[in-house]
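Two records follow; treat each independently.
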Amino acid sequence: MRSGEPPLVVHVIHHLVIGGMENGLVNLINHLSPTRYRHAIVCVDDFSDFRNRIRREGVEVYAMRKGNLTHAQLYSRLFALLRSLRPAIVHTRNLSGLDGLLPAFLAGIPIRIHGEHGWSTQDLGGENPKLCRLRKLHRPLVTRYVCVSDHLRQYLVQKIGVPDRLITRIYNGVDTGRFHPADDRSRTVVGGAPWGDEPRFVIGTVGRLQPVKNQVALLQAVRTLFRRDPGYQRKVGVAIVGDGPEREALRTFAASEGLAESVWFTGARDDVADVLPNFDVFVLPSLAEGISNTILEAMACGLPVIATAVGGNVELVVDGVTGQLVPSGDIPLLVGAVEAMVAQPSAAKTLGANGRARALSQFSLASMVRSYDNLYQNVLNRRRPSSAIASKVTDGQH
């Protein structure tokens, strides 16, 4: 680090593509003061044009493309890059980010923060013995842990053996200025839905279309609702926002169950902040979660939230106050929750207003940024006294 420059933070992640964790990283970089930190992102795999959402100038993004390398080659390249960049902090995230810890240690980077943001479909509860051993093996290389929920904090303590004093819990934050309730209930921004301009009670979800998000459970619930009362088929519309490997399977299921005229697959969208306020209820039927950015965005938009009681969801949704929590995989209870919202829209709006107030008071983007700033300053300040003492000793010798 050249004299007078802010400290460099290198963020190591799997890939920089559309995703909740990636969106949180971009928000953090865009909102932390440029006079306090510089940033670089190292992707163990690769990046997409999602990188263009970074508004801060001078943020380099590097791709290691791990799939083309042996472990030795990957570690060698990471080591060389970190030695060249000489960051003050290396901040790794999730399982793939662990690959950055040993190279950072060998490169002499004294501050190595590791963040846990949730698990993959292949390891929904973080119980895979091999992956637990891998996390434990890297534990001595981490100087500080960050997790996005109390659920993950307990996991780190109980399963990985991390001392609680080394863990900081920082909730994700939502930009409550960008995500806000609609001034009216026009459907113009969701033009293209199969029901056209016909007014519908819109049940929406946002997220990558992958098994862990379990969007098929929402379709199963809607199918059951329509069979119970065919009249709902002309009153209710479903919007599934996002893209991913499950898209064709979900479309096929919707078509085979006679839902094609009621379900809109929007694909990936850059205007989620405009689309969300046009929903009437937000549903997240995931099998596992860290902390869901989409729940926070829905709350900020004044939507009631129905979510499965997994991971950090229970820390966001207050059952009966801002929405409803249902057990994962319990389709009958999910159907009941959805039907209650459709049948009592005024009560649903009250839940949504409560959610907006909760997002403002406890989950603002400003609060998240301030918490990371405090964390970075805390770990940096712990390094500075020894440097200052060494400097005084050297001056005294001269």
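The next record belongs to a different protein.
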Amino acid sequence: MNVQPGMVAKKLGMTQLFLQDGTRVPVTAMAVKGNVVLGHRTIERDGYTALQVGFDEQKPSRMSKPQLGQFKAAGVAPCRKVQEFRVPADLLEKYPIGSELPLDMFAEGSQVDVQGITKGKGFQGVMKRHGMRGKPGSHGVHEYFRHGGSIGCRLTPGRVLPGKRMGGQMGGDTKTLQNVKVARVLADEGVVLVRGPVPGAAGSYVTIRTAHKTAVREVHRAARGQK
């Protein structure tokens, strides 16, 4: 489980950067400015430690009274998106309730984990969903070009095995990209640029947090150094 601090971001879309040597780098722009701490989860009260973060202001008229009471207690404006991030107990004091998460949490060149919901594509066949090649377009083949072939197992076991690749609903799944490199941090605009694509459509919410595997490697490296 990733227990590194993170932020909620809004995917703005993709663009490109040019390095000093002229290399073109495709990047995804994500707006992260405005992440505020709404609450703390503690071991004594909740059984785990986490930061409750709000992002993207919402009209108070679209919130229920209990929700408005939560934001009023934290001293922040109502937020459209609320997300919890599991963190160690010592980080709760670093980010008090009502404070805004700093943008320097992500340094240029560091690695992060980005999680989002992929674009929904509806019901799709096996060629688009699983990359099957289909059937030949000649030698007597007709009305079978984009089929997946046989799915049966004859007498034994006499049923279709679970996990068989077939047509079905595609997209709309939660996906996590690990060890994505931060290409640039635009502090004035509150935007983070990461290399490559990010799951989700433009305008959707994603979570970005320090890479779990990188943090684990650093802990192991420090432990070996102490020995």
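Discussion point: The first helix runs from residue 43 to 46. How would you locate this feature using only the token line?
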